[in-house]
Design brief:
Layout (H helix, E strand, L loop, with lengths): L4 E5 L3 H14 L3 E5 L2 H8 L6 E4 L8 H11 L5 E5 L4 H9 L4 E4 L4 H13 L2
Parallel strand pairs: 1-2, 1-3, 3-4, 4-5
Pfam families: Response_reg (PF00072)
Organism: Halarchaeum acidiphilum MH1-52-1
Protein name: Htr-like protein
Length: 123
């Protein structure tokens, strides 16, 4: 069986690397990182992405449009927002638009993110 793959997009390359390393230690799956919303969408066209994790504020992208584009390309792939945005209406809008979850960045949040991913894909 092919291992599951999580793709994490965050415009901060150092933060993306740290989160990627932490997720790899928590999940039984491959974790790829990118700093580009465009690259994340391109990778979604590959059949081996099982979960997409997006920073809510990727430069050059409206978060809900990016979510809709991802969902239209691969409706079977859960999309999780991992963000510093602390806005209940943003979380509600994201979930209404089809996000599987909205996890706020902060102490212990990578553990929470790993739990959410595990729930979504069984990793």
């Amino acid at each position: 069986m092919t291992p599951r793959t999580v793709l994490y997009a965050d415009d901060d390359p150092e933060f993306a690397d740290v989160v990627g390393l932490r997720l790899r230690s928590h999940l039984d799956c491959a974790v790829e990182t990118t700093t580009s919303g465009e690259h994340a969408l391109e990778r979604l066209d590959d059949a081996d992405v099982d979960c997409l994790v997006l920073d809510y504020r990727l430069p050059g992208h409206d978060p809900l449009e990016l979510l809709r584009d991802a969902r239209s390309r691969r409706p079977d792939v859960p999309v999780v927002f991992f963000t510093g945005v602390d806005d209940p209406s943003a979380a509600a809008d994201a979930k209404e638009a089809g996000a599987a979850a909205f996890v706020r960045k902060g102490p212990g949040s990578v553990d929470t993110l790993a739990d959410v991913i595990r729930e979504q894909i069984g990793a």
